[in-house]
Design brief:
The chain has 339 residues and is mainly β. The protein is built from four helices and 29 strands. It is globular and about 50 Å long.
Length: 339
């Protein structure tokens, strides 16, 4: 029987407590008495629906359902993926095996693109949610490995709203691994593994694209930013952006950057060996606003903060994991093959 996500998180936390106890004298007996780890604690039971902004009732949509209620198809080639991703109406598109594509495939509204098992991969190109004439609203992308993209691995753009990017593995692209821009809104980015790349996730097109003001409401939670250099995320104009329970490790340039009056709430994350965990303003971009609380900075620098930020709880409810448990919880649950 599948456990709930919250039950799995409690199990993962218990396992982390046990490991910590094993490192201390006398810790074995006390840990076993206090918090035994159930069998299967390392196997994640993922959410069936998104947490965060993708769950919000807004813009004529009550949450994000993707292709629910539509036809289920399985694709094994780039041409088939492009065909079904661009069709009108709801589709559940199952990606089986490794698919080679040459460019960005446009994904239009009401699609779920789901990897089968742990070997689904899109390589050589990426997915672009919507065009200027065909919106990419109500889209779910889960359980897929993205490698070697010729541009972005995933681009949420052109006013796409209600998007859930969950349990993917993204690496070795050309530009951004996951960029969200051009008036997109109500997006959740959860349980993804970003690695072997410099630019992880841009949020906001450019300093001059002021149409993003009042948009770009995004939740980032339980992602593993594993050795990526920058943009975890780099934010322009958006408020609120909610960044919670993510694991940052060995990020060479910086963790998070809030610029151009963006408002970012950063809470209960774990920063390990990150010299500049949070910037207020970056490069030629003007300063944003940041509120941080409950984070841990291990072998890391001092975060910059400024101003106040709208509370995400005015939009949705959520439960925080303790920051100390984030490395074990995120490493156990993020990436492909976990749902």
């Amino acid at each position: 029987m599948m456990t709930t996500h919250r039950s799995w998180r409690r199990a993962a936390v218990a396992a982390a407590m046990l490991l910590a106890a094993l490192a201390t004298p006398g810790g074995v007996a006390s840990a076993v008495r206090a918090a035994p780890a159930p069998a299967g604690a390392a196997v994640a039971a993922a959410e069936n629906t998104p947490i965060g902004f993708a769950s919000v009732n807004a813009l004529g949509r009550n949450g994000t359902t993707g292709g629910a209620g539509g036809t289920t198809v399985t694709v094994t080639t780039g041409s088939a993926l492009e065909d079904y991703a661009g069709r009108p109406g709801p589709y559940i598109i199952q990606v089986s095996g490794r698919i080679q594509v040459d460019d960005m495939i446009t994904v239009v509204a009401d699609k779920s693109i789901l990897g089968v098992g742990s070997t689904a991969e899109i390589t050589g190109g990426g997915l672009q949610l919507g065009s200027t004439t065909r919106p990419g609203n109500n889209v779910i992308i889960r359980n897929i490995r993205f490698t070697g993209a010729s541009d972005d691995s995933i681009s949420v753009t052109n006013k796409a709203h209600h998007v859930w990017i969950d349990h993917n593995d993204l690496s070795d692209g050309y530009d951004g691994l996951l960029d969200i821009k051009r008036e997109s809104d109500f997006v959740t980015v959860s349980w993804n593994h970003f690695h072997h790349h410099s630019k992880a996730s841009l949020l906001g097109h450019s300093d001059n694209y002021t149409a993003d003001i009042g948009k770009l409401r995004v939740t980032y939670h339980h992602n593993f930013f594993d050795g990526t250099d920058q943009r975890h995320p780099r934010v322009r104009f958006a408020e609120p952006v909610h960044v919670f329970n993510n694991y940052y490790r060995d990020n060479a340039l910086y963790g998070i950057a809030s610029t151009e009056n963006a408002g970012v709430l950063v809470e209960n994350n774990y920063f390990q060996n990150v010299a500049h965990p949070i910037y207020v303003g970056y490069d030629k971009s003007g300063p944003g606003r940041v509120v941080e609380r409950g984070n841990l900075y291990v072998g890391s620098g001092t975060p910059q903060t400024a101003g106040t930020v709208a509370e995400p709880r005015t939009y949705y409810s959520y439960t925080l994991d303790a920051a100390a448990t984030v490395p074990s919880v995120v490493q156990a649950g993020a990436g492909v093959g976990k749902i």
